[in-house]
Design a protein that fits this description.
With about 270 residues, the chain is α/β, with parallel strands linked by helices. It contains 10 helices and 10 strands. It folds into 2 domains: about 5-145, HUPs (Rossmann fold, 3-Layer(aba) Sandwich); about 155-265, 3-Layer(aba) Sandwich (Rossmann fold), CATH 3.40.50.620.
Length: about 270
């Protein structure tokens, strides 16, 4: 259940900086290469010269954008190497950020994509479709959303409702927790303590390695409010992406709502693969 590659998108901002640090620690923990991606768009009014040597003429807007992309990925790569990631690769993609990240993720089907959460909780930005918001609905791989909480990962919550798709997310989250040495807690939200314990008993019996893990029942009538409240006690919350696309998304799936409300880092596991 380990990741073959860890991909991180960065634009040099503070939010992206923490995403790079988190991605580097994950890559180091699972022993995977780290791919640092920055996207930039060539100015249409400033086309490059025809010769390869003069592809981006000095002093042009395109040249400055290209240089910015190189410096941004280089800075991120330096951060990753300081965090003991041996294999760091850099991509300066020409194009829109979302399309560039999705294209890179598509070439690594067993990878993990990491981005910051700027704008994800602001309704105005969600309506126009900011980068993390669009990735939550279209990423072909697991997506890790990093907040600005200045903390490492010591406690990870594996959320389950007892479904098969939740079980796949729990397996992925458990493998990640073990790889980085964090404590994994199996968590569910239920209307009563007894009902929640039954869900956790069933989930633990169907997934190897969960029998002796900590468990928590969050008593709440709404899964989103329960996980939002309970998520504050953890450094990372792991959920499946059920309902993140199609009609369920429009109706407001639990996963969709949590991506906009959870107060901690969030691993959105692609359970459709």
């Amino acid at each position: 259940m380990s990741y073959s590659h860890v991909l991180v998108g960065t634009d040099g901002s503070a939010t992206a900086g923490r995403a790079v640090e988190v991605a580097a620690r994950v890559a180091s923990g699972v022993g995977a290469p780290l791919v640092v991606i920055t996207a930039w768009q060539r100015h249409q009014s400033d086309p490059p010269a025809l010769s390869e040597e003069a592809k981006f003429p000095g002093g042009s807007a395109a040249a400055m954008d290209a240089q910015w992309a190189i410096e941004t990925t280089s800075d991120a790569a330096g951060t990753a190497r300081r965090l003991e990631v041996e294999d760091v690769r850099q991509i300066q993609a020409i194009g829109a950020p979302v399309e560039s990240l999705l294209e890179s993720a598509g070439t690594h089907p067993d990878g993990l994509l990491v981005v910051g959460t700027v704008g994800l909780t602001h309704r105005s930005e969600r309506l126009v479709g900011n980068v993390p918001h669009q990735l939550t609905h279209h990423s072909p791989v697991d997506l890790l959303l990093c907040t600005q909480r200045d903390t490492g990962w010591e406690r990870i919550a594996l959320a389950t409702d007892g479904s098969r798709t939740a079980a796949r997310a729990v397996e992925r989250g458990l493998a990640l927790a073990d790889a980085i040495g964090a404590e994994a807690t199996l968590v569910t939200v239920a209307r009563t303590q007894e009902r929640g314990e039954a869900v956790l008993d069933d989930a633990a019996s169907r997934t190897e390695g969960l029998a002796d893990r900590p468990r928590q029942v969050i008593v709440d009538g709404d899964a989103v409010s329960g996980l939002t409240r309970g998520g504050r006690d953890y450094d990372l919350l792991v959920i499946g992406n059920k309902g993140m696309s199609g009609p369920s998304r429009l109706l407001g799936s639990v996963s969709n709502r949590i991506t906009h409300e959870v107060p901690t880092d969030l691993l959105l596991v692609n359970t459709t693969r």
